Amino acid sequence: MKKFFIALLMIFALTAAAAAYTPGVYKAKATGNNPNVPVEVEVTFDEKAITDIKVVAHEETPGLGDKAFEKVIPAILAAQKTDVDGMTGATMSSNALKEAVANCIAQASGTKSETVSTFKPGEYKATVTGHNGPLTVTMKFSENEILSIESEGVESVGIGTAAIEILTDEILKNQSLACDAVSCATVTSGAFLSAVRECVK
Questions:
Q1: Which of 83, 109, 135 is the last residue before a domain boundary?
Q2: Structure pTM?
């Protein structure tokens, strides 16, 4: 009888271990290349695996964002995790998809979602047209973090420069480009965020 109960407990333990997810369809969003329209996904789970991933809404760059999704979704399904390679030239779209899927995995498994953004370590520069002329942004990255952001240009002192400082602090603090333009400095804000997106790519 004792052996029977031990065997029964082992069966229950194995069953619990195998049931990694609560079956169902889960939704999540993450900011990609377009800060105004997040990438939205629906991820389907059975008890043991991710069975389907659909991007149900996005406004990523045509020809890049959709291609990134076509590459990354099969990779996640094959690996059963979000730690997969993104698409060169569409880093933000790839990372947004992986982040949203990771959120769904966390929901289905009852665990905390982890940051999955990955970058190519190094220093990158981008120059755009600001309010008063060229605006150059220099960013440094580790594999999974934006380390620093520096800008150089002739934006309006007090308004433009303050807007850049505010946005820089927000991006570094939140590790996200989901920032609103600063009132009274929308041109400078837009130019700065555009340069940042170019660096992230």
A1: 109
A2: 0.58
Write the single-letter amino acid at 153: G
User: Does any domain span residue 5?
Assistant: no
Range of the domain at 161: 122-200
Residues 118-171: pLDDT tens digits? 678 899 999 988 888 899 999 998 877 889 999 998 777 778 888 888 889 888
Residue 4, in any domain of the structure: no
Do 26 and 104 reside in the same domain of the chain? yes
The token pair that represents 56 in the structure block: 């149900």
Dihedral of alpha carbons 40, 65, 77, 18, sign:
negative
Q: Which neighbouring-strand residues pair with 44?
A: 25, 52
